[in-house]
Amino acid sequence: MKAVAIVLLTVTFNAHAVCNADAARLIKAYPDYLVACENNYLIWQDGEKQLFDDGKEKNAEQLLNAADVEDMFAYPYPVGASSYTPPALNVNPGRVRNDAFFKKMYGATQQAVESQLVTIQWLPQSGHKTVRVTRVNGVDKKLAQVSAELDQLPAALKKYVLNTAGTFNWRTISGTERLSGHSFAIAIDIDTKFSNYWRWAGKKYQYKNQIPPQIVELFEKHGFIWGGKWYHYDTMHFEYRPELLIQP
Ligand SMILES: [Zn+2]
To answer: Looking at CB atoms within 10 Å, which of 9, 102, 137, 159 has the fewest?
Structure first.
């Protein structure tokens, strides 16, 4: 959204004063950290103010590389039966992240994120694997609920999730300088054997997916979005991003 700063006498106004419905969704999604949005600034529990909308128009590449908090909502995350059609060109809902926002909640360094990790049993009735995720925002409890519900699925569905390909990993996204959702211990990759990733597809782009909607919807119910709804698809990837799933 384009905002124009207007200086009147000594008072500066933001023409749009953009504390919109998306700001409200963030406050609702992260109540342990955010208290309000005022005059285009998010107010954190510790009193810090973070600019919400920088007012700059961005193309798809700039959205990924220089996102402000407001840009994280640039592409609405689709839900429901009609949300499984291949995404349109460059439509990546949830792939746009403001690094400072996530670093402030989950930790700004590998050590800081690691200090908040909790080990949970993955599908405890069906396997013996454990995964490590953050306790921040109750992500560990939410993922434990997902795990318990996946455990109740019939074998034909459970096979997609029984093995995982990892959770916490302080790293940049392949081919980029940007931190992945895995760096903040809010993401999990399910079995690569049934997964598709846009970079594996070769030169000619083609959307591919094998993950059934039942799996996706179970994660979404607990606040995790799915990388299969991205143009740059990553169908093994689920990430805790409740702000994109809750309504204002
Ligand atoms: Zn992933």
So the answer is: 9
